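Please review this one:
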Amino acid sequence: MSTLTRTATRQDARFAGRRRLRGLAWLMVRQHRAALIACAVVTVIGAAWIIHERGTTLDTLHGAGWPAKPAEDLDGAMLQRLDNSFNQVANYLGYLPLLFGVFIGAPLISSDQEHGTVRLVATQSVPRLHWIWWKLGLALGLVTATTGVLGALFGWWWRPVRPVVSSNWLDGTVFVGTLPVLTALTLFTTSLGIAIGVLARRAVTAMVLTFFTSAAALIVADYLKPRLATPRRIAFPLHSKPPSQLTGAVQVDQWVGTASGKVYGWGTCMNDSDADACRARLGIVNSVWDYFGYDQMATLQWTAAGLLLGASVLLVALAVWRTRRQAL
């Protein structure tokens, strides 16, 4: 009997030596291994896909003579094919905030509350706050790692080819798909899911509520995006080619104006029987654009990221406060 006991003890010791993770670290990995594997797979496959598509796009464009040949002189079918590939990847990246919020954030704590795991952890002399921080650290760390890699690679692909893709930088596909907005937005939806889960205490209920709440939040965020900075205004002669400083700019409104600076709606005199006489009578000689310059992209993105991260901090604080006060 003593020989068997000593053998079992040695085997347990060797197993413990091989198992490097202890306590809550082991519990987090064991409990959320499916999410860890899924995020790793998404990151690796997504990164490989973006790198491959970037190389294919640039090789095709260089083979067609770009950038020495202007984009408007390139084959339209080829540009459409490359643009479709770009938008396909961008659309998949756009799903990440919703997916993380629903499948990572919502069930993170609500599932433990529903199945009593939190009560089991508390009986092992683990402080509840310690357990909460481990849970939050795992979820938010997965978000940051996955979206950080994919957002950085997507921006690396977009910047050299932006003159030939149809999406401008204020479109949701580019603005949200690149850093820092992709990471900040996904952290926000994940934090929203965590907070909803803590309040709902039921995983499926929390996932459904998170889906609809996050979708509404994304719509509101898209509406507020152009209001994060002040558009610039420029006037240039009517019917002339826009000046070079508008290259890469995003037009947000268009007017017609007089030499003194008075502006009228873009359709002014369009339906008049003699449009030129109408413009001459009003003194209209300029096209007037309200626009965001390409150099404003970083300001808009970091402003959006800052607001989203601030909201995420508030949601995480709410989740921690509520979890500590709730009965097990």
